[in-house]
Design a protein that fits this description.
This protein is of the alpha/beta class. Helices cover 35% and strands 11% of the residues. The model has no long low-confidence stretch (mean pLDDT 93).
Length: 226
């Protein structure tokens, strides 16, 4: 496979990014999955990211360690802030400051090293929690910046950031993934999952995930605490 068909895929271990990985592979990309140990409280997602990558024989997986918990500011990185279990207005406290910007920047660097022109990310602007770095305007702006920032782009190798889930509902995402053979029992989406990967069933991410399976008309394979 030529280098032009290599892609870096951001994989969190959750439902959305696992679907994106399947979509990238279906398009013929040789996938290099990238996860981040960034100080998140829900570390079960790291094991899930490794699982969804390891079941695919042609996928190379990398974990980069960061310390976003050193700046805090989010219920996902600061144990003193409770993960909300009720819906709220505005940008929720589970938003991690600059997370996607940091993640995409590192993905951009790895893509350039690999000779890849493509990065896939599972952001979504329909069934999501209101995070500003999940909007289409943000993805487009980052792509513009990326093509100003790299030697590869200056030498004529335009970088493309793919966000194929952007306009899909959670139910549509699940239906798409099932058609591509995704095993959602391997994934973890919960913001406060146990070390064993059991989901709370109460946080915003769990609510969106559960409703997605209802909308898709299929059984929910998620393992809940109760």
């Amino acid at each position: 496979m030529s280098e032009s068909k290599r892609a870096v895929v951001l994989v969190s271990g959750g439902l959305d990014s696992t679907t994106v990985l399947a979509m990238a592979r279906a398009k013929g990309f040789e996938c290099y999955t990238l996860s981040f140990d960034y100080g998140q409280r829900h570390r079960a997602e790291l094991f899930a990211a490794e699982r969804v990558s390891s079941v695919l024989p042609d996928v190379a997986h990398k974990v980069v360690k960061l310390n976003l918990d050193s700046i805090g500011g989010s219920a996902l990185t600061d144990s003193r802030i409770a993960v909300p279990e009720e819906e709220s207005e505005g940008i929720p406290i589970t938003y991690v400051p600059a997370r996607n910007t940091v993640f995409l920047s590192i993905a951009l660097g790895w893509a350039e090293v690999l000779g890849s022109n493509d990065i896939f990310i599972g952001v979504n602007a329909v069934d999501y929690s209101g995070y500003p770095d999940c909007r289409p305007e943000y993805i487009k702006a980052f792509e513009v910046m990326a093509n100003l920032a790299t030697r590869a782009a200056i030498e004529g190798h335009k970088l493309n950031i793919h966000a194929p889930l952007m306009d899909m509902t959670k139910g549509e995402i699940i239906s798409t993934g099932l058609k591509l053979g995704v095993d959602y029992s391997l994934t973890v989406s919960c913001y406060q999952a146990t070390e064993e990967g059991l989901a709370c069933g109460k946080c915003d991410s769990c609510r969106l995930r559960r409703q997605g399976f209802v909308d898709a008309g299929v059984a929910d394979p998620t393992r809940y605490i109760s």
